[in-house]
Amino acid sequence: MKKNPIGTIIVLVATVVVFLGLCLPFYKVDAFGINMTVSLLYADGVQVIGIIWAVFAVLTLLFALIGKKVPVLIFGILASLGLFLSYALNNSTLDEYESLGAFVEKGTGNTLCLAGAVVILIAAIIYMATTKTKKDAE
After folding, report:
1. Cα separation, 61 vs 74, whole angstroms
2. Closest to 108 (Cα-Cα) out of 11, 38, 36
């Protein structure tokens, strides 16, 4: 299988977006005089989930660098599903906090996780579509 430099660069950019989303503040909560900022990669209890999504994103990039089409798509789908689920579940939890009277502000990590989920899925699909196999080259 031939390597695809353009597809690999797109997957690299998608992986960077995912890591930025995981590292930047996901939300800020101000309740009962306590201020708290949480990111998915550095939060207590949520850290394992952030690490799993980061590993899926890295595996997507690793297989793109090696030149394997199917694993890029599989791990791209897993990373995007996981990031989207984290986004949806955390936002529903944040809505519950707001209903209790807490001030909740969604951070840039929240938006970047959603964008990262979309970008890494699109990058995996583009990589699949643009990478040629040995049979295609002949």
Report:
1. 12
2. 38
